[in-house]
Fold:
Amino acid sequence: MFVAAEDYEDRGLRLDEKLIRRPAATCFLKAVGGAPETGLQDGDLLVVDRGEPPAPGRLVVAVVRGELTARRLPAGWREDDGLEVWGTVLWLVRAP
Structure:
């Protein structure tokens, strides 16, 4: 439940303060097509941080055959497994 506070000060909406840790290393990508194995749907907005270290279980953007694609890193994944990780997805923004 949401309650309006009488002493509320309207500062405006600044999602970048919540979603971006490293502005110089962050970009937004739009998903084209869905990928059930990643949980992505067509039109999803991905907030990708190129400075965030990848880890097993995380959703990443990788370079596959010269193109960017989203992948979920499998358990036991290591950086020397040959997958070229371009950035780590920190947030996924989806229209209702």
Q: What stands out?
A: The mean pLDDT is 88. The beta strands are 26-30, 45-49, 59-64, 67-72, 84-93. The chain has one domain: 21-93.
